[in-house]
Amino acid sequence: SERTLVLVKPDGVERGLVGEVISRIERKGLKLAAMDLRQVDRKLAEQHYAEHDGKPFFESLLEFITSGPVLAAVVEGPRAISAFRQIAGGTDPVDKAEAGSLRGDYALEVQYNLVHGSDSPESAERELKLWFPDLQA
Ligand code: ATP
């Protein structure tokens, strides 16, 4: 079994799509190990998106992710990292995400793409420590 960090970004919370995201996670057979709604501060945003520091959209991405509450969840199951990325769809909600995925069904713009899921075991480990430091291994 594997764990991944899932976020419903401020656009998803604002639009009332938290239930839809959780529902799809549960229907796939993945389990919720922890979950809470939180306001992300600038420091956490910078750490979470450190790999994008210096890119043209970095500042705008930080503003967006700190603009309203985010649902943060630890999602668990066999191949949970890939399984959630399949549910989410590709980063660009129109060109990459397939219809039937969360982004394919509910998003239009790359920045406002509804959800985040860790992209590798290394990212998952780093992100889970950052967002859920007290979680048991
Ligand atoms: P996430 O890490 O949120 O799951 P991802 O792994 O699919 O997304 P990344 O390439 O890591 O995509 O980009 C992280 C986030 O930065 C994207 O989800 C999106 O919100 C934002 N982003 C990426 N590329 C752009 C861009 N060209 N313009 C604006 N925002 C972008």
Task: Describe this structure in a few short sentences.
The protein is of the alpha+beta class and about 140 residues long. It contains seven helices and four strands, in the order E-H-H-E-H-H-E-H-H-E-H. A four-stranded antiparallel sheet has the order 2-3-1-4.
Q: What does this 3D model show about the protein?
A:
- This protein has 137 residues and is of the alpha+beta class.
- It has a single domain (2-131), classed as 2-Layer Sandwich (Alpha-Beta Plaits), CATH 3.30.70.141.
- Helix content is 41%, strand content 19%.
- The chain has helices spanning 10-14, 18-28, 42-48, 58-65, 80-88, 102-106, 121-131; strands spanning 2-8, 31-38, 70-77, 115-117.
- Strands 2-3-1-4 form a 4-stranded antiparallel sheet.
- The relative contact order is 0.24.
- The mean pLDDT is 97.
- The structure holds adenosine-5'-triphosphate.
- The active site is at residue 116.
- Homotetramer.
- Residues 1-137 form the Nucleoside diphosphate kinase-like domain.
- GO terms for molecular function: ATP binding; metal ion binding; nucleoside diphosphate kinase activity.
- It is found in: Cytoplasm.
